[in-house]
Task: structure prediction
Amino acid sequence: HIAAFEGHASCLRALHELGAAASLSATDEYARTPAHLAAEEGHADCLRVLHEYASLSLTSADAIGSTPVHLAAEAGHAGCIRALFELG
Result:
């Protein structure tokens, strides 16, 4: 979650390579995935890495019903919105 929130795509790749891929799709206490945090903070590159390596849906809703695209739109991150639609 921290790597996605901070925009460290290379750390997300390293987690996958080191066998910690499950952490790339884990949810926090608010049912947010790393994709939610990356979208909210404007890290489209992280969204691409998560799509490639994590077994998670980029359209999953958190505890209050927000999806990554909702959070990206709310924060004004057009690049993340584009990436999410391109990735499906």
Residues 44-53 form the longest helix (10 residues). The CA atoms of residues 35 and 47 lie 6 Å apart. The radius of gyration is 11 Å. The mean pLDDT is 95.
